[in-house]
Design brief:
By secondary structure, this protein is of the alpha+beta class. It is 16% helix and 44% strand. The chain has one domain: Pnp Oxidase, Chain A (Roll), CATH 2.30.110.
Length: 160
């Protein structure tokens, strides 16, 4: 299968954008994720997919905890910031974060957050599917969501 056509086809599906963060005693890592969805209401489960090589995924594997921050339409720069690879020591210093369970930060300026413990991790090709049990959550700042569509950030036209 042609991977370019595969990517173009998947780009027809609009997604919301989140930032997943995890922390160990040594480090804190975060990454932009658009492969996030709910799995179950009872028990409350969500999932995201992570590249096998991701430092954030490695941190989630070690700590067995993560937070998910759902981004607002005004947070495109934040999405781009967490999409970068490399050292993250300074990444969190200037952000408005609050701490969830076990001190794992979430972005206080987002639409909402979920604080999760790892329920299961399933290998899937060059990624892993991480299923999390939602232990805490909250609505933060009502706004429109940041969306991704056809490989670009997307803002729906206002309707009257």
């Amino acid at each position: 299968m042609d991977t370019k056509i595969f990517r173009e086809t998947l780009a027809q599906f609009a997604t919301g954008i989140t930032v997943v963060i995890s922390r160990t005693a040594r480090t804190t890592h975060g990454m932009t994720v658009n492969s996030f969805t709910s799995v179950s209401l009872t028990p409350p489960l969500v999932l995201f997919c992570a590249d096998n090589r991701s430092d954030t995924f490695q941190t989630v594997q070690e700590s067995h905890r993560f937070t998910v921050s759902i981004l607002a339409d005004r947070q495109e720069a934040l999405s781009q910031r967490f999409a970068l690879t490399g050292p993250q020591e300074e990444l969190f210093q200037s952000l408005n974060c609050r701490e969830g369970i076990d001190g794992i930060p979430y972005l206080a300026d987002g639409l909402a957050f979920l604080d999760c413990s790892v329920e299961n991790i399933i290998p899937a090709g060059d990624h892993h599917i991480v299923i999390g049990h939602v232990d805490n959550l909250g609505l933060l700042n009502p706004s429109d969501p940041l969306l991704y569509y056809q490989s670009n950030y997307y803002r729906p036209a206002a309707t009257s």
